Amino acid sequence: MKQKSEFPIYKPEYQDHADSRLIAQPSDMRMGATKIKNRMARKVFIETYGCQMNASDSELMAGILTQSGHQTVTDIEDADVILLNTCAIRENAETKVINRLEHLNHRKRRESNLVIGVCGCMAQHLRDKLLEAAPYVDIVMGPDAYRNLPMALNAVVSGDPYLGLQLDKGEDYADISPIRKEGIRAWLTIQRGCDKMCTFCIVPFVRGRERSIPLNILKDDVERLVDEGFKEIVLLGQTVNSYHDGKHDFGELLWSIAEVEGIERVRFTSPHPADATESMIDAMENSPKVCKQLHLPLQSGSTPVLERMRRTYTAEEYRKLVQKLRERIPQIALSTDVIVGFCGETEEDFDKTHTLMEEIRFDSAFMFKYSDRDGTLANKMLDDDVPEPEKSRRLNEIITLQEHISAEINQTKVGTTVPVLVEGNSRRDNEQYHGKSDTFKSTVFPKENAQIGDIVNVEIHSATAHTLIGQIS
Ligand code: SAH
Ligand code: F3S
Q: What structural domains and CATH numbers belong to the chain?
């Protein structure tokens, strides 16, 4: 039996005007949108859920709000506007936000002027249905409508909710300066949306079509980030390596970002195995600034399951790609995403995933039970037929396997020296720093004379599945 949630299926709606960002939406027009000046400067708290792309979008939202005279605050108690930047990837991501909204509504009952907004993927997924579940929500805004945030804050003064749900494949926010926390690692969105349409995935429906930001703009951004003190850049996109701005591909972008003076490290997430081109591998192999680390989502080790997922590669092709990467870049660290219990996954299919994980030996993995999402192709075409307890059993099995492998791989680092970019104080001990190795392993070590932002050589003397522990050599 297919499990149907209470929410109907939504199709993505695309707006296709070159300058669509200037076109007011129905609720804006009602307010005479473009003419409205800020009625009052607001104090906005943004709470982020989900992936790095959302974290990066929250920085963008902060940029848009600040540019229009509002202020973002770091203490939620100081805020008169609370925006939840949400995730829709699995059902529990949405449940978490619904629970959070109920909690925030207690405060709204005491402070009637408090504005609550739901932004991001869940807003785009549930649309006005969200208002049925949480009628006290003032703003429902999808990932392509953030430019209208100031307008929305003005509009809700009237008491009506503001809905900004148009997807817009011309929107790349390339002209907006995000507001980032100071630090050494900056996340830079180079591409929005996704054209891949994996059958299990809601992302193409809530983030719209793929679009890449022009290389020259990204290069300027990186130069600015270096001036602000950032040392490491993580390029972000749903299928980051399918980047193409019409003139340059992903490999060219990597080379060009890595050449910016003052940049110490360049990483990216997440690539799609089918787009792992020679140009990408060449930059990883030959640019000293591009880290030898790759998050390469596998999803399943069974080819029939991969076909039903429409991942566009077979298990064998994935295996060969890993072989090639390891031949070309022997020190490369690999991590992955795996889904268990996808529609029609048999014990034999699951065994193939288990075996492939044993064979490849990823440094780490994010592992998930399949969660049926309204609106996806799998939801329409396939049965979510693996029973919940079976999904849990399979998940636990691969988690146990992966923990074991991660611990063993980290053990092999004991006695070696790894370069670590110092990020800040260790959470547990102020006398220690933490940072990431070039292969993205968390490393903890006594401070000695190192400064935040330095790259230091750390000799590893012990290791757990998740952390390397050592001292500066
Ligand atoms: N290309 C994107 C993928 C975003 S989703 C990126 O890597 O940034 C991240 C991971 O969530 C996917 O790789 C997949 O393993 C998992 N996922 C996506 N949809 C899911 C679903 N319906 N159920 C369970 N896991 C899912
Ligand atoms: Fe989702 Fe597949 Fe794109 S996992 S984000 S549809 S590559």
A: 22-164 (3.40.50.12160), 182-291 (3.30.750.210), 302-411 (3.30.750.200), 417-472 (2.40.50.140)
